[in-house]
Each structure stands twice: as structure tokens, then as C-alpha cells.
Amino acid sequence: MRAILGDSIGNPELMKQRIQERVRAKGREGFNRPKTGSVAAFKVSFRDFNPLNAFIWFELFGEPTDRDVDLLGGVIQAWYVMGRLGAFNSSNLQVGLV
Questions:
Q1: Name one Pfam family in it (predicted).
Q2: I need a surface site. Which of 2, 74, 85, 98 has the fewest CB within 10 A?
Q3: pLDDT of 31-70, one tens digit each?
């Protein structure tokens, strides 16, 4: 993106012009390529859970790409933040009895 937009940040017309030039230069074929990769999803399994000694195993069908590593890292960070906010604490019941 930096190579395409350069110093046009803050100037929407210049940004639009540069992107249009990039599309024209690359041609329609450059953007309409068939997708590649595996359609197989992650396999997730749950076993007996001890919150004081918890491990999560991810089984991948091949070597993880940088994108896979970023995705898994983001999931773990989000899970940690939600836990810090009390989302997974069963004693933190924020509903009133009716």
C-alpha cells in the first residue's frame, strides 16, 4: 500500500487517482486470479479442562504461513483480553435473578 499511495495520505483525490492508475496498469487479470490454498479448516478439539494448567493445541495441515501465525496470535490475544475483562469467569455473573 505504501508503494501505491506514497505521500498521498490526506488527499483523497490523489489517492483515488493512484489506485485507478494501478488498476489500469495491472489489468483486470491481475485482480481476478483464481484463489489458491487449502479449503480444509482448523481442527479444534476440547478435552478435560483445568484452568490452572490449560494448553491449547492447533493442528494444521501444513506449515503455517505468516498470515496463519498472525491469525492465531490475534485469536489468543483477543481471548486473553476477554478473560481479563471477566468474560470467562463463571463466578462473575453479571445478570440479576428474576
A1: DUF3531
A2: 98
A3: 666 767 677 777 777 777 776 777 777 787 888 889 888 9
User: Which residue's entry shows cell 478435560?
Assistant: 48
For residue 93, the one-letter residue type is: L
Cα distances (angstroms) measured from residue 71 to each of 19, 21, 42, 89: 27, 32, 12, 24
Three-state DSSP state, 43: strand
CA 19 – CA 15 distance, rounded (Å)? 6
Residue holding cell 486473553? 80
Per-residue pLDDT reduced to its tens digit, 66-93: 988 898 899 888 888 877 776 666 555 5
Question: Model's pTM, two decimal places?
Answer: 0.36
Q: Is the distance from CB of 8 to CB of 14 less than 8 angstroms? A: yes
- Contact in structure between 82 and 88 (CB atoms under 8 Å): yes
Q: What is the CA radius of gyration of the chain?
A: 22
